[in-house]
Design goal:
7% strand, globular, 5 helices, mainly alpha, 84 residues, two-stranded parallel sheet
């Protein structure tokens, strides 16, 4: 959760914190793109979120292999939780 607070892809949802209410936070359109990522290329945490949303019927679930570390390295804009 601390890495999410310090900087995440804008609009990203922290699955580990919001797992119990994730369905309320996901788009209603089952064909909308959902990108799952975690810390970096060797992290496998994204798979739990991807499997979950796929099991709920989402059809356009992708994995961003670079994770947040790759995103930052490419200069992507970050969103932070206020107060951090």
């Amino acid at each position: 959760f601390d890495t999410y607070k310090l900087g995440h892809v804008p609009g990203a949802i922290d699955f580990s914190i919001n797992e119990k209410e994730i369905e309320k936070l996901l788009p209603q359109d089952m064909n909308r793109l959902i990108v799952c990522y975690c810390g970096g290329p060797k992290c496998g945490a994204w798979l739990k979120a991807a499997n979950y949303v796929s099991s709920k019927g989402y059809k356009n679930v992708k994995h961003f292999q670079g994770g947040i570390s790759g995103y930052k390295a490419k200069g992507g804009p970050l969103e932070k939780v206020q107060g951090f």
